[in-house]
User: Fold these one by one.
Assistant:
Number 1:
Amino acid sequence: MTPSLDTAFVLDPRLANDSHVVGELALSRVLLMNDMRFPWLILVPRRPGLRELTELSREEQRQLLDEVNQAAHVLHAIAKPDKMNIAALGNVVPQLHLHVIARYVGDAAWPRPVWGVGVADPYTAAESSRVLGLLRAGLSLSPET
């Protein structure tokens, strides 16, 4: 059963500024972090005011975990990483969101976390279009309108 979503949901401006919208799953908005160094998805449950995973109902927690699992499998199939990192921190952006990051031995941050490492390398228009197309196909999402 798909939970009904509150129309008061607003994406944190920092997440919006740092990413491309992939699309909408049953519970979450899926974003692609605009940094080619790290294939990186962010899932944001479309509920206003959430800060913690524990603020979701048990059903919504299971739905979010299913969506993270789906996103991780698709990202893994596309990026073929050495390791997948999945995390929910919220120290800088308090809005509840989960990171799904494909990592490679020897990437710009390896083996440390990706946060605060170097300068982002934004996707070109052609590359973002290509990657977004692959992600949307893998997640069975419609193109953004």
Number 2:
Amino acid sequence: MGFFDSEIVQQEAMQLFRDYQSLMQLGSNYGKFDREGKKLYIQQMEDIMERYRIFMKRFELSEDFMAQMTVEQLKTQLGQFGMTPQQMFEQMHQTLERMKAEIRE
């Protein structure tokens, strides 16, 4: 069975995408959140980034051709911006750390 044929993988991918989309929509109002709302939003973003990192690691470790192609496509797309997947995750982490620092002030 291929990586993408797994119902579990499909469900997880859809849930991750839905959760991310919901947070992005919610984030458009980030400036209106109170301090506790901002903390909660940042925590949820950290959780999604960790889920995404794990999901991508599964792709990398899989021997499935389509999973490997997905990893290569991501690398190519990020490469157009002069970035690697690791740099993307580091940049997201730095952004969330800056957001945390702003609400501590």
Number 3:
Amino acid sequence: MTRLAYTPGQAWTYRTRPGEEDSRVVIRKMDIEPEDGEVFHVSILGVKLRNHKVPGGLQPAMHHAAVLRATLEKSLLEHVGDGDAGEQWKDGYAVWRQAYDNGDAGVFDLSVADILGYIEMVVAASGEAR
């Protein structure tokens, strides 16, 4: 089986959650880490991420997630060109990089849809507005 060449700048369709069919994954950066191997830094755009901490309660993007190749292989469907040139992901990457280097952060191996569900669960556990 041929390994796909995932490279920074690519936009992909993926196995989305219901109602987010127009969402896209954009590959932002790839690092090689001694413990984890290939780590891809992606943005997940066009989502409806429940987040009580943002106005309206829905966040339209997850600007940074660190994922393994396994996440891409189980989630991505079709390369649809280049992603946006947005740089919002860099702040999340910087926070992740410091935490990862300190041993306080990891890398997702879940599907993209499962990552979004996990993030919603963590945000909700941090205290829903009542």
